[in-house]
Amino acid sequence: MEKENISNYEKKLKEQKTRLEADIKKYSEAEDFGNDADHLEEEADESESYANRMAIASDLKKDLNEVDMALNRIKMGTYGICTKCGGEISEDILDIAPESELCTDCKKKEK
Ligand SMILES: [Zn+2]
After folding, report:
1. Burial, 21: exposed, middle or buried (Cβ in 10 Å; 0-12, 13-18, 19+)?
2. Which of 7, 33, 37, 104 has the fewest CB atoms lying closer than 10 Å?
3. Cα–ligand 1 centroid distance for 90 (angstroms)
4. How far is the CA of 101 from the centre of ligand 1 (A)?
5. How far apart are CA 10 and CA 107, in angstroms?
6. Long-range contacts of range 50-55, CB-CB < 8 Å, 24 or more positions apart?
7. What is the distance in A from the centroid of ligand 1 to the CA of 17?
8. Can you say how many angstroms the Cα of residue 92 is from the centroid of all Cα atoms in its chain?
9. What separation in Å is there between the alpha carbon of 86 and the centre of ligand 1?
10. More confident residue, 76 or 37
11. Which whole-number Å values give the CA distances from 29 to 32, 50, 65, 70, 103, in the listed order?
């Protein structure tokens, strides 16, 4: 793959990483109840939405991990190469999901 293309994907991945980290922070933070004494009766709802937020944060962390691994592959010079079969990952896929680690064939087989 052209160096120029790789640095393009790297830029995308870094933007994605920044966004994910901000979202994870947002979802992981415990709600600030502060002076919220009036809303005690809503506590059950609040704890449920807390659980939802934790679930979202955990999904986001998985995404972040994939982005980190892709950035690592860029460093190692193996970006755009399928981690399973060693074949090239088509740029059509990388354009949509720059964190992809599998080529189309291997992705199909995974399902
Ligand atoms: Zn493959």
Report:
1. middle
2. 37
3. 10
4. 8
5. 22
6. 53/27, 53/28, 54/27, 54/28
7. 24
8. 19
9. 6
10. 76
11. 8, 9, 19, 27, 36
Rounded to the nearest 5 degrees, what angle is found at the Cα of 82, between the Cα atoms of 12 and 111? Answer: 100
pLDDT (tens digit, 9 = 90+) per residue, 39-82? Answer: 555 555 667 788 898 999 999 999 999 999 999 999 999 999 99
* Confidence check: pLDDT of 6 > 80: yes
Could you give the CA distance from residue 54 to residue 63 in angstroms, rounded to a whole number?
14
Are 56 and 27 a contacting pair, CB within 8 Å? yes
Cβ atoms < 10 Å from Cβ of 68: 14
Q: What is the pLDDT of residue 95?
A: 96
CB atoms within 10 A of CB 13: 22
Strands (E), the chain: none
